[in-house]
Each structure stands twice: as structure tokens, then as C-alpha cells.
Amino acid sequence: MTSENEIITSKKWELDKISISHNIIDYKTFGSYISKNDSESVRLHFGLNGNYNFKYKQLNSSFDLVGSHNNIMYSKGIEIEVSNKSKRIETFGINFATDFFINIAQNGNESLKKLADKVILNENAILSNEWRPNNFKIQQVINEILYAQYTNELKDLFLLSKSIELLVLQAELYELSTANKFIKSNSDKQKLFEAKEILTLQIDNPPTISQLSKLIGLNEYKLKKGFKELFGTTVFGYIHNNRMNLAKKLLLGTDLSAKEIAYKTGYSSPQHFSKAFKKEFGTTPDSIRNYPDRTI
After folding, report:
1. Which pLDDT score, from 0 to 100, does residue 237 have?
2. pTM, two decimal places
């Protein structure tokens, strides 16, 4: 779908009580855009890439968001004004029917129960005014949804289970205390998002900890500890997991050979790649390509 100032690439999945969407918006210019509808739902919102501000009329709130982030919101109808600060914004969202969300959330932790109480009373609400970064578990489940190989009824069951898993992961993330956070300043947080972006873009030849520290202007201790706090994994763990997920995506979605993918994901030899891949997924690269329905 295109308009004068933007090109939108969308993918949607419609289930009985859940609607899932993945959107990539490429803007030609910087500006503000209003989006609204009259529907009522609970939205699990995940920012994947981009820098933007949005004003949420029903919540009487404004948020500045960059990089990966997530929250859960409820309102009867929605009117959002988005001001893009980057030329590309990528988001992922799951809309739960309110009755379905309430049935699940009332059996959840305190964060979910409090939100469910407001949904029952038809009070516009957000899980937290502090948006938290997507940890690796959350990103991994999103990737599993985006690249699912199942078909028909099995796919619907898979998407339903993964949607509920994301809800659980968010509830767990927001239950954690913020009192003893190591990273306190927004400036340090932005530098860590920058570090994550550098590692993502340079997956075939990532910088060392020392090099990365200098690139973002943060000492090595704060880089390592802060990265683990924000993203739920170490720098090296992120590199490894990102390589494995990209390799799986390329194996299932392209005709590149395993050898080409090995070098593209930064491995020194196809043998090292195959060994790491089998350890991660329990099967060889060739097997996952030949029998995708058997993958985990």
C-alpha cells in the first residue's frame, strides 16, 4: 500500500480472537501522520526499528520511542499522531479481543490483573508509562511468527500459542523491579541501542568489545552490564543468536548455499557454521532446508 509520503509493506494474520500485523513504513519525508479507528481491543505493541514520537489521544499521552521497545495498551477506539524521526519504522503488533484478553490476564501476574481490571471497566489504559526494550526472548518469538512454516490449522494453533507466549513474556518483563536498574540515564540507554544496531548491521564481522565501546562512547564495563540488562543477553550471546536466526531465515527463504550463508553470517568455515547450527537447532543446515516442517 502506498501514499504520497510513505510506502507501507504489511503482513497480517487473522485468527478468531487475535489479529497479528507486521508493518514496515518507508517515509519519503519527515512529518506527522494521523491514524485512527473505532475498534476496541488490547494491543501488544512492539517497535522493532526506527525513531518516532506518537501522541495517543485516548491515553492523553505522548511517547518518544527509538529502536526496540514494547508495551500493552487498551482503548475504545484509537487516534494516534505519529511523527517519524527516521525514514523507516518497523513495528509488530497483536490485537486481542477484550474478552479473550481478560480471561487470560485474570490468571496472570499483578501487572496483567491490574490492566485487566481497567479493561473490564472500559478505562483507557497502558501497562506502564515506561516502555521497555524487547529482550532476546521476545525478539525470538516475533521472528518465529514472521518465519513460521506451518500451514492451515496447525499454523493458526502455532500463532495462537506464540501470541500468548509474547503476552507472558511482556508481563514478566514489566513485573521486574526498576528500582535497582544499572542503566539509569536515557543517554546511556541510547548508546546501548546504538551498540545493538551496530552488531546487527555488522553481523558478518562485528567489532570487538573494545572497538564497540569506543564506537558508542561507553566504557566496556557499562557496555557489557548495560547490554545484558536491556536486552537479556550478553554481547556475544546476541551476536550468536542473531547469526543463528539470520542463518535459519536465509536457509528457509533463499537459494543461497549453506557455504554462502556460513560466510554471510560471519563464520570462518562452513564446518564451524554447521557445528554451531546443529548445536542451536538440533539439526543440520541441509536438513532444516529440506524438511522445514520438522524444525523447532
Report:
1. 92
2. 0.77
